[in-house]
Specification:
By secondary structure, the protein is an alpha+beta fold. The chain has 3 domains: 12-122, Acyl-CoA dehydrogenase/oxidase, N-terminal domain (Butyryl-Coa Dehydrogenase, subunit A, domain 1); 127-236, Butyryl-CoA Dehydrogenase, subunit A, domain 2 (Beta Barrel); 238-382, Butyryl-CoA Dehydrogenase, subunit A, domain 3. It has helices at 12-20, 25-29, 32-37, 43-52, 70-83, 87-107, 110-122, 237-273, 285-313, 319-344, 346-349, 355-362, 372-382, and strands at 127-130, 146-150, 153-164, 171-177, 187-193, 199-201, 215-226, 230-231, 275-276, 279-280. The strands form 3 sheets. Strands 1-4-5-8 form a 4-stranded mixed beta sheet, covered by helices on one side. It has a 4-stranded antiparallel beta sheet with strand order 2-3-7-6, with helices on one face. Strands 9-10 form a two-stranded antiparallel ribbon. It is globular. Bound molecules: flavin-adenine dinucleotide. Flavin-adenine dinucleotide binds at residues 128-132, 137-138, 162-164, 210, 215, 364, 367-368, 371, 373-374, 377.
Length: 385
């Protein structure tokens, strides 16, 4: 089946860009369960992602981008989420788009763009971003990694943790304290090449899901970064991070909508063919009801994400909308993954069918991109509570 078209006026160019990804689905899915079992990032598939040009979509043509807006990007990514079952690879892709290239395009100097932007959006160099620390997760403003000014350089000292694509990365956007100001005000963002002296990358940390995209700890000991590698101004790190997180949520969670649609289609097909008690299991309202809830969850997510992407595209504030879209989609995806396992019975519980992987991959989402609890806290505060 083909992915349901979201409402909206899409140009022929947008439609053909979205469709162009479909030709890669088969190759992207080949051996993905084996890669997951081996915790393996697949370089050949990364090459396919590069060749597809998807990373280039939201970047200016001057740097080799395709010059499209965020709405076009998520429209294309939704189709990729529908067709590609290697969720870890898609997580690495989203990280590549948002972690360094997006802040570099908006907040970096031309010199910094000349050095890195074309290579980032080509996928030749891989990127990550480092915010979380062992004692600063939900409350990232409690970070203690410092960046101390020294002549033409800043000296980074500290530790970061849970860094997606960290073991693969050539360049990392590091958020560190440059000032004594409390809260967000003293945090600054730097682009740090991973071959910088004093920069140490830890071994991949084993995790529950998204196994084809490794994450790790980082350590900075007297790590000297030229001042030109700063993104934006001193103290602007959290402002930059807010922009990056909006992109991150729109990209990752729109791919989840595609994933939910594909999963629902599998469940419908199965529910129509699997027989029990002399009838298809789908004729039982307990089973049909689960699929109806999958449909409601995915359409609710799609509507919230597209509405938010449209607002964001128009330069409007999306503080509450982005939190709601993230919450709705991550929770709908976990519920959909659980229902699919139940509908497939013991088959759903096996590795062979890939549905248990869908659940393992889904469970990370209420934690990353701002935990669902902190998103609820944010919505409460926007309501004046
Ligand atoms: C798959 C994955 C990928 C990640 N990738 C990256 C990355 O690339 N870069 C990076 O920097 N980080 C990354 N992270 C880290 C992620 O940002 C943090 O895990 C997240 O911010 C939560 O921090 P924590 O794990 O320290 O949890 P904690 O802050 O210790 O929170 C533990 C629990 O307490 C809850 N809690 C905390 N405070 C409150 C409150 N005030 N009210 C209600 N509940 C609260 C939290 O919601 C959570 O449920 C990733 C995490 C995962 C799972």
């Amino acid at each position: 089946m083909a992915l349901t078209a979201p409402t909206g006026e899409w140009t022929d160019e947008q439609k053909s860009l979205r469709k162009s990804l479909s030709q890669h689905f088969e190759a992207l899915n080949a051996g993905h369960l084996e890669d997951d079992a081996a915790n393996r990032f697949n370089r050949d598939k990364w090459q396919l992602i590069r060749d597809s040009g998807v990373i280039r979509i939201p970047f200016a043509e001057q740097w080799g981008g395709l010059g499209h807006d965020v709405l076009t990007l998520v429209y294309v990514l939704e189709n990729l989420g529908y067709g590609c079952r290697d969720t870890g690879l898609l997580f690495a892709l989203a990280t590549q788009v948002v972690s360094a290239a997006i802040p570099l395009q908006k907040f970096g100097s031309d010199d910094l763009k000349d050095r890195y932007l074309s290579r980032l959006i080509d996928g030749e160099i891989i990127s990550a971003h480092a915010i979380s620390e062992p004692n600063a997760g939900s409350d990232a403003t409690a970070m203690i990694t410092t960046a101390t000014e020294d002549g033409d350089e800043y000296i980074l000292d500290g530790k970061k943790i849970w860094i997606t694509s960290g073991p693969l990365a050539d360049i990392i956007t590091v958020y560190a304290k440059t000032g004594t100001a409390g809260g967000a005000a003293g945090i600054t963002a730097f682009l740090v090449p991973t071959d910088t002296s004093g920069f140490h990358v830890g071994e991949p940390i084993e995790k529950l899901g998204l196994n084809t995209c490794p994450f790790c700890e980082l350590e900075f000991r007297d790590c000297r970064v030229p001042k030109e590698n700063m993104l934006g101004k001193p103290g602007a790190g959290f402002f930059i991070l807010e922009h990056v997180m909006n992109y991150e949520i729109l990209c990752i969670f729109m791919m989840m909508v595609g994933e939910m649609e594909e999963r629902m289609e599998r469940c419908i097909k199965w529910a129509k063919t699997r027989q029990a008690f002399g009838a298809s299991i789908g004729s039982n309202q307990y089973v049909a009801g689960k699929i109806v809830d999958m449909k409601i969850g995915l359409e609710n997510s799609r509507k919230h994400l597209y509405d938010t992407a449209r607002r964001f595209n128009r330069g409007r504030s999306v503080t509450t909308e982005i939190s709601m879209a993230k919450l709705i989609t991550s929770e709908a995806n976990v519920a959909s993954a659980l229902s699919a396992i139940q509908i497939f019975g013991a088959r759903g519980y096996t590795r062979e069918y890939g549905l248990e992987k869908g659940l393992r991959d889904a469970i990370g989402a209420p934690i990353y991109s701002g935990t669902n609890e902190t998103q609820r806290v944010r919505i409460a505060s926007m309501l004046g509570l």
